[in-house]
Every structure is written in structure tokens, then in C-alpha cells.
């Protein structure tokens, strides 16, 4: 899962890098295109404004040329005829050009001749040399000093309205003679030049002193067109009717439209790409999750290592259950920590380094070590760990704990050996049992004196053979087939003997038994011996009584392996002169014979009945 998350991060970073790259390229192109659009837009507005500038300059200069004509007229016409000729000359000028407020000649600085007089009475007779306005005094002084055409304004005129005054001093023989003045009315000039009615551009006019005399306050970054008016430089500031941003946007509309289309297509493409990548990432995560679940569900421990046998990954559940480690504890360490000995680790390493032998499918049995130090047998297969190009980049160790298998194998071997032994013993037992039967028959033959005794002898023989059969039945019903639980056998024998004594039984048989296991060699004679002792007690202990009790015990002496079998009754006891050596009874002889087969010792007493005890080694 960690690798999948890293892959998703790489994909997201890749997308972000693409977006950042595209955004950077777009920013560069946008800046470049905006600079072009700005330059184009401003040049376009310059082209729009130039005709207005030329028209305005032309209108002003045409009217200033009239001042030169008026000065020539005033210098050429004798003063005595000026009064009659001035009105005709001024009327011609006045009619030729619109926007002339008045025309005047001021001999000695006093405005004596004014046309038209009707609207300009306020200036008639005005002594310009004594005008209280500083700007007027400055301009008149400059005109008298330079003899050039001097302009004043535009500013508010005394007779009202905005006007531009052009003056020129008259000299004769370097002597000041007076002034000629034309007052221009600016609004008609604005209309004539078209700047007042300009539709696409906003025009602001500044005089040489940077005073605004026409148009609105200029906005940000106006286009500044210089205008040479006589010896002054005026400025025409040009702005779009709308803001520059709107004009720039109009020019850049195709670019923005194209950008939007590209952004939509690019965004759509990136979205589809991202969707595809996330879909693939989701599939990869699911595949990784399935792989991890499968990887962790395997009961065998799987180690993924690099070529130096350092641990990269492992299936945590199996690692924990088999070795007791968490992956974090051993990640980055070499696999020697799981081997029982360094020699086993080196041996496996030597096998892996053999280039000529492909050990991919080879199963190797080694001793491995858990975290707690306990050692267990394991089966290990070590295929190669390949990258997507088929290059070996490490090893994959697949480890199986074969402790149970080895135990099962050993148990199977033991069972097979046991059965082989039992098969051999069966032949031996059958032979021995037949020999026992033959010996019993040989002992019993002397008892066949009458038909009744013969029947009784055969009945006794059948019981003895049945006791042998019960031993074999107990043996074959046991788990090991090599030993008999004598307590189970004795209880079953007592149960059958009790059943043979009638209902209700007059003689009661009980037992005190320990769980003692005897092999078949000891179990057969012991079983016949128990049967013989109980049968003898039933036959002989209660001849003069109608009821009695027989007690059977089987156990070990404390702290030894000596088994003690005791059969005790509360009958009449043994005869005072009883002796095993002198007894001619078949039962007594058989008891002695069976005790001898057990390598045991037989003892007896007659205290409150008869007691027979047999001791033999387990």
C-alpha cells in the first residue's frame, strides 16, 4: 500500500508540474501578448489623436497669422487714416475666421481701436501697459523685448468666456509704437478642430505652464502629444473614452477567447488524464490490496530480500506466528537472524551464489531460530526476485515450519516399527498362546477321570482360554496395540464372573485397581493368573457358606516399579497343612506356573480367609 500511495503522490506531483508548466508558459505568452496589445492600442489611439492635434495646431496658427497681417496693417497705414480703414480691415478678418473675439490696435499701449466695439466696450481705452494682472504685464513686457508674437492664455477673459490672446509689439526705428492684439474665442476652435466632438478618444489640453484649459482631468497613463505653438510647447493628453483596461481587453479578446478554448480543452484533457490516472491508481490500490491480503493470508512465512539478503518485506501474520517478530524489527537486517547457526546461513548463501545451478524450485531443509531463541525445523525455497524487466534484484524466501510434519513422520515411523514388531510378536504370541493352551490341556488331561470331571475340566479350560481372548481383545481395542490397561481388563473379567454367579449373586467380587499398563508378554499370564485366583476362591473358599466377598487389588509399591496383585476372600481360609509345594491341585500348579512366567513371587496367608499375592516387576 505504501508503494501505491507513493505512486499516487508521484502522479499528482506530475499533474501539478504539468499545470505549473502550462501556467508558466501561459503567463509568459500572456505578458508578451499584453505588451503587444498595449503597444498596439496606444499606437492606435495615437493615430486617432494625430488628426485632431494637427487640426487644432492648424486652426491656432491660421488665426495667429492674422496677427502678423494686423501688425503689417498698423505699421503701413498712417495713423490719421487708421480710424477709417481699421473697421473695414478688421471686419474682413473677423468674417474670414470664426472664433475671433475681438481685434484691437493699441497705440502707445492704449486700446484705441477695437473691433467689434459693441461687445468689447470694456476693453476700449484700456491701457495695457498698466494692466494690474501680472501675467498680462509679463506677456506685454516679453512682446516689447522680443518683438515676436506672444500668446497669453488660454484663460478667462475680462469680457467673459475663455480666450487666447495673441499680441505683437510695433516698433518704428526701434521705438515702441504700440501693440496689436487678437483675442481668440477657444470654443469655436475646439469645434473647428473636432476635439470637442471626438467620439472614441478623450482629449485634454495643457498650456506651456501645464495648466489644463480644455477637457477632463487626464486618467492614468495618457498619451502625451506635444504641440508647438509659436515658441511654446503645449500638450495634448489622449485617453480612451473607456479605461485603458477595457481597450486592452478588446484587443486581447481573441487571445482570451483562444486561451479559454485552450484552457477548456487542456483542462478537459487534464481532467480525463487525471481521471484515468486515478482510475489506474484505484485499480493499482485494489490490486495491491488484493496482493497484500493474499500475501498476508499465506501460512508460510515469505521474506523478500535484496541481493545482499537484507529484508525488504515479509507477510506479517506468518512472520509473527512463526518467528515472533514484527516486520519493523527486522526490516533492513540480513536474514542471518532467523538461522539457527551461522553455518546454515552461509551454506544457503553458497547455494544461492552458484550461477550454474537454478535453485528456484529446490526445497532445502534447515534449522531456523525464533525471536525467543527456540529452534525449529523448516523447509525453505528461495526463488529469484525480478523487476519488471526480468532483472534479478533480490530473493524471495518461502519458509514452512515442518515441526508437525516431522513429528507426524516420526510418529508414523514409530507406528510402522511398532506394527512390524507387533506382527512379529503376533506370530510369537500365537505360538506362545498355543503352547499355553497345549500346556493347560496337558495339565488338564489328568483330571478327565469321569464324565462329570471331564465336563468340569473343559469348562475351566474354556474360561482360561476366554481370559486369554479378553487380553487380546483389550489389546486390539487400545490405542498402542502393544500394551493392555489391566484395570479395564480386570473390571471386565469381574463383571463377567459376577454375571456367571447368578442373580442376585451370593458371592460379591469388588476391586481396588490402579491404571497399570502391561505389555502383551506379561498381560496374558497375568490375566490367566487373575482368572485362576478368582475362580479358585469362588470354588473353594465358600463351600460351607451361601455367600461371600472376594476383593481384587492391583497396584505398585510406593517408589518402585514392583506390581502387586492380590486376591483376598473372607471364606473359610486354607487348611492348616496347606503347602504350595505339596498341593496336587491343578489350579495351584497353574498359579505357580503363571507366577514363574511373570518372574514373580507368590505369597499367601489364611487370616480371616485366604489371601494370595503375586509381586512382579513392571
Short description:
The protein is α+β, with helices and mostly antiparallel strands. The protein has helices spanning 2-76, 79-96, 134-146, 186-193, 244-297, 316-323, 327-330, 342-352, 403-444, 451-477, 486-500, 520-540, 586-597; strands spanning 100-107, 113-115, 150-156, 162-172, 175-185, 201-206, 212-214, 223-229, 232-240, 301-306, 311-314, 364-369, 375-381, 384-386, 392-401, 483-485, 507-513, 517-519, 548-556, 562-569, 601-605, 611-617.
How is this structure best described in words?
The protein is of the alpha+beta class. It folds into three domains: 212 residues, 2-Layer Sandwich (Beta-Lactamase); 102 residues, 2-Layer Sandwich (Beta-Lactamase); 208 residues, 2-Layer Sandwich (Heat Shock Protein 90). Strands 10, 11, 12, 13, 14 and 15 form a six-stranded antiparallel β-sheet that branches. A hairpin with a 5-residue loop joins strand 3 and strand 4. Helix 1 runs antiparallel to helix 2. The radius of gyration is 70 Å and the shape is rod-shaped. The relative contact order is 0.05.
What's the count of strands? 22
Number of helices: 13
The CATH architecture category of the largest domain equals: 2-Layer Sandwich
Globular, elongated, flat, extended or rod-shaped: what is the shape? rod-shaped
| Proportion of helical residues | 40-55%
| CATH class division of the largest domain | Alpha Beta
Strand content: 15-25%
Radius of gyration: 70 Å
CATH topological fold name of the largest domain: Beta-Lactamase
CATH superfamily of the largest domain: CHASE domain
Keywords: ATP-binding, Kinase, Membrane, Nucleotide-binding, Phosphoprotein, Transferase, Transmembrane, Transmembrane helix, Virulence
Domain PAC: 362-414
Domain CHASE: 113-197
Transmembrane segments: 12-35, 255-274
Amino acid at each position: 500500500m505504501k508503494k501505491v500511495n507513493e505512486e499516487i503522490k508521484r502522479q499528482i506531483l506530475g499533474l501539478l508540474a504539468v499545470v505549473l508548466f502550462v501556467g508558466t508558459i501561459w503567463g509568459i505568452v500572456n505578458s508578451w501578448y499584453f505588451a503587444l496589445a498595449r503597444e498596439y492600442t496606444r499606437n492606435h489611439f495615437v493615430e486617432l489623436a494625430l488628426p485632431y492635434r494637427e487640426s487644432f495646431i492648424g486652426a491656432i496658427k491660421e488665426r495667429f497669422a492674422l496677427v502678423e497681417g494686423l501688425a503689417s496693417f498698423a505699421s503701413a497705414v498712417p495713423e490719421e487714416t487708421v480710424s477709417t480703414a481699421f473697421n473695414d480691415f478688421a471686419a474682413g478678418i473677423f468674417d474670414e475666421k470664426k472664433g475671433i473675439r475681438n481685434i484691437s490696435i493699441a497705440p502707445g499701449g492704449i486700446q484705441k481701436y477695437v473691433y467689434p466695439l459693441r461687445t468689447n466696450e470694456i476693453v476700449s481705452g484700456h491701457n495695457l501697459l498698466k494692466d494690474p494682472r501680472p501675467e498680462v504685464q509679463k506677456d506685454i513686457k516679453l512682446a516689447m523685448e522680443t518683438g515676436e508674437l506672444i500668446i497669453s492664455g488660454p484663460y478667462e477673459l475680462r469680457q467673459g468666456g475663455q480666450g487666447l490672446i495673441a499680441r505683437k509689439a510695433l516698433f518704428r526705428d526701434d521705438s515702441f509704437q504700440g501693440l496689436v492684439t487678437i483675442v481668440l474665442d477657444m470654443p469655436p476652435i475646439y469645434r473647428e478642430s473636432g476635439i470637442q466632438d471626438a467620439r472614441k478618444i478623450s482629449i485634454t489640453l495643457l498650456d506651456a505652464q501645464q495648466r489644463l484649459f480644455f477637457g477632463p482631468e487626464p486618467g492614468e497613463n495618457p498619451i502625451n502629444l506635444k504641440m508647438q505653438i509659436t515658441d511654446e510647447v503645449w500638450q495634448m493628453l489622449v485617453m480612451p473614452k473607456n479605461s485603458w483596461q477595457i481597450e486592452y481587453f478588446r484587443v486581447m479578446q481573441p487571445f482570451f477567447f483562444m486561451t479559454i478554448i485552450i484552457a477548456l480543452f487542456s483542462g478537459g484533457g487534464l481532467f480525463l488524464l487525471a481521471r484515468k490516472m486515478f482510475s489506474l491508481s484505484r485499480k493499482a490500490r485494489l490490486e495491491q490490496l488484493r496482493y497484500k491480503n493474499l500475501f498476508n493470508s499465506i501460512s508460510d512465512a515469505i521474506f523478500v530480500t535484496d541481493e545482499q539478503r537484507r529484508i525488504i518485506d515479509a507477510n506479517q501474520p506468518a512472520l509473527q506466528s512463526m518467528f515472533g517478530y514484527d516486520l519493523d524489527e527486522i526490516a533492513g537486517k540480513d536474514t542471518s537472524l532467523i538461522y539457527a547457526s551461522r553455518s546454515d546461513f552461509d551454506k544457503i548463501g553458497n547455494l544461492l551464489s552458484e550461477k550454474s545451478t537454478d535453485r528456484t524450485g529446490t526445497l532445502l531443509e534447515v534449522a531456523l531460530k525464533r525471536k525467543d531463541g527456540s529452534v525449529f525445523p523448516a523447509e525453505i525455497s528461495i526463488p529469484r526476485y525480478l523487476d519488471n524487466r526480468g532483472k534479478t534484484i533480490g530473493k524471495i524466501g518461502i519458509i514452512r515450519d515442518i515441526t508437525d510434519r516431522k513429528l507426524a513422520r516420526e510418529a508414523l515411523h514409530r507406528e510402522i516399527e511398532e506394527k512390524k514388531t507387533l506382527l512379529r510378536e503376533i506370530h510369537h504370541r500365537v505360538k506362545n498362546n498355543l503352547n499355553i493352551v497345549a500346556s493347560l490341556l496337558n495339565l488338564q488331561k489328568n483330571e478327565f477321570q469321569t464324565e462329570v470331571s471331564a465336563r468340569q475340566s473343559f469348562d475351566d479350560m474354556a474360561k482360561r482360554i476366554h481370559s486369554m481372548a479378553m487380553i487380546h481383545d483389550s489389546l486390539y481395542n487400545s490405542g498402542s496395540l502393544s500394551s493392555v490397561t489391566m484395570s479395564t481388563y480386570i473390571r471386565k473379567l469381574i463383571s463377567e464372573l459376577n454375571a456367571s454367579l447368578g442373580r442376585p449373586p451370593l458371592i460379591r467380587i469388588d476391586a481396588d485397581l490402579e491404571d497399570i499398563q502391561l505389555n502383551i508378554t506379561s498381560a496374558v499370564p497375568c490375566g490367566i493368573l487373575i482368572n485362576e485366583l478368582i475362580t479358585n476362591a469362588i470354588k473353594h473358599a465358600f463351600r460351607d457358606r451361601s455367600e461371600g466377598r472376594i476383593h481384587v487389588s492391583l497396584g505398585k509399591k510406593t517408589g518402585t516399579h514392583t506390581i502387586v496383585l492380590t486376591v483376598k476372600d473372607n471364606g473359610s481360609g486354607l487348611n492348616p497343612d496347606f503347602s504350595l509345594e505339596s498341593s496336587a491341585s491343578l489350579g495351584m500348579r497353574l498359579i505357580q506356573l503363571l507366577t514363574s512366567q511373570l518372574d514373580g513371587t507368590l505369597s499367601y496367608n489364611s487370616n480371616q480367609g485366604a489371601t494370595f499375592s503375586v509381586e512382579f516387576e513392571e
